[in-house]
């Protein structure tokens, strides 16, 4: 009898998994690009692929000391795939920075020579800039300072015995590399050193990259070149969705770069969201590639509402919207913000809502601090986020073992091999740590209070900027006055602001950014849109929604086939809306509420009952 298999939502995309698995043959490997939209089960396909590899060739790979490499976008995704693959040592699952560092970490001499060339180029550029700038300008003073740092680092390189790097750490030591350097060095070494290429291919005959559309393009280009060169013994698997590319350093032409010899399976299901939300996401996506996802039959309904409001009192507005969504959906959990994931376009908007505004905005006023502040890697406050927060948490949990672990890992007397550990030094350390605990006892001290104890007791390493602030703050008119003044203003904030900031940066708060939730899902999502507060040129929701006309440059970019602000914003809006499982509230702050409501009604994205003016 003929086997007629009934197609259901659960197996509709199973052919994509079969195609992927057919690529895994050590004697005849193939490469693939899996196109899979939001909620389609990319992680499930990835885990299924790993299970297949383990069953079919795991023993052979292990006997030959080989592994399968999996590159993920975030630590959370890495940990989830590790858990779902049962922590099998056959699979080396890591973020791109960690994977890159493991490839190059033993190439000390080559790294040193690369840094010498790179720093020498930057040094020459700074010298040229100095020669053409007036000595009285701010640019001259900043360039002069930069030149001094470059010169100092260049002179230090020959004394480095080995370089260090921590993808999740501060990297403030003199012999440490920063995040961008690790990627640049790896991309250049892999493209130029055939030995390193062979090491990669021999060690990892299968390399799988999740969220490939946002993988650093320089490194992704090199992986594509290596696959072409070693196609007979190397399988490269890319998983992703071009519609979810939201970072500008990703590879924007990825589909065009996929060779015709590759397999290109697709998944059309959305297993995450209810039908109304899937329909909205399809409408947002349609002008880009016309691709439409199918929602599950067992996930009908769903709620989408757009609330248009003036900016008079956003906190009251958002609280009112929570209550309205609770009534509209019949879901009482909407009435409490902690049950909702609220997304803002800019960190400052979250900072004011979560209660770390002074700490954040004061640091954000320093241009050189901004990037590290936004991604959590700012070394100047690393002692607060990486040491004092876990130390305080250990105190609150009455966990002396965890407290001792934090101290031993970070205290200067344990990190500096020149220190001879004596009972006197250990007692001084204990006294200092006790002083920190006493400072927290029953009150919320300022960061400066805690840092002064650390400085005076010489407990942990502090950044040079903090030492300058505590020792000898510059006078008005000095070149560092503004920076140290802003740092001082931030660190006079209560320590609880730092804790709220760190909780937010790590995705544990009720608020997050539009960009920060890619790959995640939540039952209730509130997307907060306010172009005025965003103050950026990368995204513009008013243009996307037809509230503001395209600019001349937008029109020119369209004619020339270049990416526009609207293109970037459309992709970001698709990402944010597709995070919602059951219900979605879009909060749009507008200059003219009535006019905005009318324009939204013509968009075709929302029904008349879904647009609510406030």
Topology:
Elements: H1 14-22, E1 32-36, H2 42-63, E2 68-72, H3 75-84, E3 91-95, H4 96-104, H5 108-131, H6 138-156, H7 179-192, H8 194-203, E4 206-209, H9 217-229, E5 235-240, H10 254-257, E6 266-267, E7 269-270, H11 275-289, E8 294-295, E9 303-309, H12 314-329, E10 341-344, H13 347-354, H14 357-364, H15 370-375, H16 382-396, H17 400-410, H18 412-415, H19 423-440, H20 447-457, H21 464-471, H22 481-491, H23 495-505, E11 511-513, E12 522-529, H24 531-534, H25 541-544, H26 552-559, H27 565-577, E13 580-589, H28 593-601, E14 611-613
Parallel strand pairs: 1-5, 1-6, 2-3, 2-4, 4-5, 7-8, 9-13, 9-14, 10-11, 10-12, 12-13
Our measurement of the CA-to-CA distance between the termini, rounded to an integer number of angstroms, reads 63 Å
User: According to CATH, what is the topology of the largest domain?
Assistant: Rossmann fold
- Helix fraction bin: 40-55%
How much of the sequence is in beta strands? 5-15%
Q: What's the CATH H-level superfamily name of the largest domain?
A: P-loop containing nucleotide triphosphate hydrolases
Biggest sheet character: 6 strands, parallel
For the largest beta sheet, what order do the strands appear in spatially? 3-2-4-5-1-6
Instruction: Average the pLDDT over all residues and give the rounded result.
Output: 91
Low-pLDDT residue intervals, each spanning 5 or more residues: none
- CATH class descriptor name of the largest domain: Alpha Beta
* CA radius of gyration: 27 Å
Q: How many E-type strands?
A: 14
Number of domains: 4
Oligomer description: single chain
Number of helices: 28
């Amino acid at each position: 009898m003929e086997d007629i298999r009934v197609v259901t939502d659960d197996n509709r995309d199973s052919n994509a998994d079969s195609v992927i698995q057919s690529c895994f043959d050590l004697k005849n490997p193939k490469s693939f690009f899996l196109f899979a939209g939001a909620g389609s089960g990319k992680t499930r396909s990835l885990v299924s692929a790993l299970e297949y590899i383990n069953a079919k060739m795991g023993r052979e790979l292990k006997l030959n000391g080989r592994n399968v490499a999996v590159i993920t976008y975030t630590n959370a995704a890495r940990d989830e795939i590790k858990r779902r693959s049962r922590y099998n040592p056959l699979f080396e699952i890591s973020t791109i920075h960690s994977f890159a560092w493991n490839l190059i970490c033993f190439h000390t001499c080559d790294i040193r020579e690369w840094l010498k060339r790179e720093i020498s180029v930057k040094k020459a550029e700074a010298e040229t800039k100095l020669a053409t700038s007036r000595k009285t300008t701010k640019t001259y003073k900043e360039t002069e300072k930069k030149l001094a740092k470059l010169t100092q680092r260049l002179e230090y390189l020959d004394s480095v015995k080995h370089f260090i790097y921590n993808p999740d750490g501060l990297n403030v030591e003199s012999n440490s590399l920063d995040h961008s350097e690790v990627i640049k060095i790896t991309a250049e070494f892999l493209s130029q050193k055939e030995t390193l290429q062979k090491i990669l291919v021999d060690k990892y005959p299968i390399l799988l990259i999740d969220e490939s559309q946002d993988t650093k393009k320089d490194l992704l280009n090199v992986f594509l070149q290596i696959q072409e060169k070693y196609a007979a013994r190397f399988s490269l698997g890319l998983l992703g969705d071009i519609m979810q590319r939201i970072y500008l350093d990703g590879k924007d032409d990825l589909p065009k770069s996929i060779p015709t010899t590759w397999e290109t399976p697709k998944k059309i299901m959305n297993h995450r969201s209810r039908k109304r939300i899937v329909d909205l996401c399809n409408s947002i996506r349609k002008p880009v590639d016309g691709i439409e996802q199918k929602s599950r039959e067992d996930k009908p309904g769903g709620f989408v509402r757009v609330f248009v409001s003036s900016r008079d009192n956003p906190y009251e507005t958002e609280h009112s919207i929570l209550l309205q969504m609770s009534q509209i959906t019949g879901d009482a959990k909407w009435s409490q913000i902690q049950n909702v994931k609220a997304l803002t376009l800019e960190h400052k908007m979250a900072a004011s809502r979560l209660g770390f505004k002074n700490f954040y905005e004061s640091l954000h006023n320093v241009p050189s601090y901004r990037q590290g502040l936004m991604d959590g890697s700012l070394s100047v406050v690393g002692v607060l986020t990486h040491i004092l927060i876990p130390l305080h948490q250990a105190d609150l949990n009455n966990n002396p073992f965890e407290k001792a672990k934090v101290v031993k890992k970070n205290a200067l007397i344990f990190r500096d091999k020149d220190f001879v550990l004596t009972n006197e030094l250990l007692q001084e350390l204990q006294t200092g740590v006790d002083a920190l605990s006493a400072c927290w006892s029953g009150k919320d001290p300022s960061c400066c209070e805690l840092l002064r104890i650390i400085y005076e007791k010489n407990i942990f390493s502090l950044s040079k900027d903090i030492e300058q602030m505590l020792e000898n703050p510059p006078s008005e008119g000095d070149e560092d006055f503004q920076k140290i003044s802003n740092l001082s203003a931030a660190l006079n904030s209560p320590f609880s602001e730092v804790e709220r900031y760190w909780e937010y940066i790590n995705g544990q708060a009720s608020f997050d950014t539009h960009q920060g939730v890619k790959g995640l899902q939540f039952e209730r999502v509130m997307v907060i849109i306010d172009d005025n507060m965003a103050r950026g040129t990368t995204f513009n929701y008013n243009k996307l929604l037809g509230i503001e006309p395209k600019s001349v440059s937008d029109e020119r970019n369209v004619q020339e086939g270049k990416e526009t602000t609207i293109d970037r914003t459309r992709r970001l809006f698709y990402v944010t809306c597709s995070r919602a499982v059951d219900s979605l509230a879009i909060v749009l702050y507008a200059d003219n509420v009535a006019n905005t409501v009318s324009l939204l009604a013509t968009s075709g994205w929302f029904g008349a009952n879904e647009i609510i003016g406030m």
